[in-house]
Design goal:
Glutaredoxin, 4 strands, alpha+beta
Length: 222
């Protein structure tokens, strides 16, 4: 399939949107960012106009011609299946694909949802949870998830330069934004040396570097 100008609804600091930016860059696909500010004026994601695009009132959303794809993992797998070229984000072997999906889902299903904006806002709004306790909540679930992720990397011979072998995959696409979140929440990364090493390898790849939050057009200017 020849790529039209893809459009990505996202937010500079959203780790789910960050995943999709990395994947688009690795696939070598041009795209336009349509910023959705998640906190300004109560959050653009809650407007009637955006709700028509995504009834969940969440980002990211990818627009590919008449196709509207929601949920970051679904978007990344769509890009992998719809467009040839660039980095192969899922391995060929069934066993390897299963491992990559397992690692990706530890982040996307088990770590990230517990510390995302709407959960933290709910804790504040409904339970008057102070900022320091919301931070401890986010830190706890990142540490829990990373402990398992680290063990699965360190104990498996398939781990190479990246999470699976020596090319980045969907697992790395999910891991790097979560490491960004961990550092943002001041999580001590010392217990996770393999994660830290792989994150450093990814940082050398332009597709990852160009997707970093501070490099986005809607990021606050210094």
């Amino acid at each position: 399939m020849a790529a039209e100008r893809l459009k990505l609804y996202g937010y500079w600091r959203s780790s789910a949107a960050y995943r999709v930016r990395i994947a688009l860059n690795l696939k070598g696909l041009p795209y336009e960012i349509l910023p959705v500010h998640l906190t300004e004026n109560g959050g653009m994601q809650h407007t009637d106009a955006y709700r028509k695009i995504n009834p969940q009132e969440m980002i990211p959303v990818l627009i590919d011609g008449e196709r509207v794809i929601r949920q970051s993992i679904a978007i990344v797998e769509y890009l992998e299946e719809a467009y040839e070229g660039g980095t192969k984000l899922l391995p060929t072997a069934i066993r390897d694909r299963a491992r990559v999906r397992c690692l990706a889902q530890i982040v996307a299903c088990d770590i990230h949802p517990l510390g995302n904006l709407r959960v933290l806002q709910y804790l504040e709004r409904e339970f008057n949870t102070p900022q320091v306790e919301r931070e401890r909540w986010a830190q706890h679930w990142i540490r829990e998830g990373f402990a398992a992720f680290e063990q699965l990397l360190a104990d498996n011979p398939s781990t190479g330069q990246f999470c699976e072998g020596d090319e980045p995959t969907l697992a790395d696409v999910c891991l790097v934004p979560q490491v960004y979140n961990a550092r943002r929440w001041s999580v001590d990364m010392t217990p996770f040396p393999t994660i830290v090493r792989i994150d450093a390898e990814c940082a050398k790849v332009p597709a990852f570097a160009n997707a970093r939050p501070e490099n986005q057009p809607d990021a606050p200017k210094a």
